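Example for tutorial group B:
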């Protein structure tokens, strides 16, 4: 049981770790990684049931573990490799969505995957083998889309991200949401989550948010 107590203490740190994307955008009192995991899990459960044909228990477990690696790996954003030091330049950068060559995107993705993999191995190293392997397998499924549940959760996770961005925009008028819509149009392919995105568009007044 000692190893479980230590594990629970470690993952509790996520309740206080702020999501980096919102920190970069200078959001006051931004959500924590734990906050994000909580609503992602609820959304994945309910939207997964609505979609049908999915193993909901697997989705829920996957949602709960998908960001545990960030305890040691940290939270990263597409902007991290190009962040300017000048505040004015940073503000201008936030108005766009980063565009990289295919080779650069692959390089960044591999670096992120390696860092997070090493963090997850460290985090789970003292757990009993069966539990450790289950967590690792669930994380790999989310990362690589090995099952329909993994592919669905990957997009449901980003749906929560989009919703949070729109909520902050409504409250603070930041982050700029045009980049988020550009990204969303390219990212979402699951029909149910495309419908969800369209509903968010209407809910948050698309004519205003896309300026």
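The residue assignment follows.
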């Amino acid at each position: 049981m000692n190893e479980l107590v230590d594990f629970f203490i470690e993952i509790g740190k996520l309740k206080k770790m702020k999501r980096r994307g919102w920190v970069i955008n200078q959001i006051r009192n931004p959500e924590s990684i734990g906050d994000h995991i909580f609503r992602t899990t609820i959304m994945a459960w309910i939207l997964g049931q609505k979609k049908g044909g999915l193993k909901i228990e697997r989705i829920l477990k996957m949602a709960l573990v998908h960001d545990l690696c960030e305890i040691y790996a940290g939270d990263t954003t597409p902007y991290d490799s190009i962040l300017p030091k000048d505040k004015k330049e940073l503000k201008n950068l936030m108005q766009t969505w980063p565009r990289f060559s295919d080779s650069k995107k692959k390089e960044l993705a591999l670096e992120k995957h390696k860092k997070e993999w090493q963090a997850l191995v460290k985090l789970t190293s003292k757990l009993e083998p069966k539990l450790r392997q289950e967590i690792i397998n669930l994380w790999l499924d989310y990362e690589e889309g090995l099952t329909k549940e993994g592919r669905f959760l990957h997009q449901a996770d980003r749906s929560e991200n989009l919703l949070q961005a729109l909520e902050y925009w409504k409250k603070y008028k930041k982050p700029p949401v045009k980049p988020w819509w550009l990204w969303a149009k390219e990212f979402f392919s699951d029909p149910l989550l495309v419908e969800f995105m369209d509903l968010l568009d209407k809910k948050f007044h698309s004519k205003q948010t896309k300026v």
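Residues 148-172 form the longest helix (25 residues). Compare this with the pattern of hydrophobic and polar residues in the output above.
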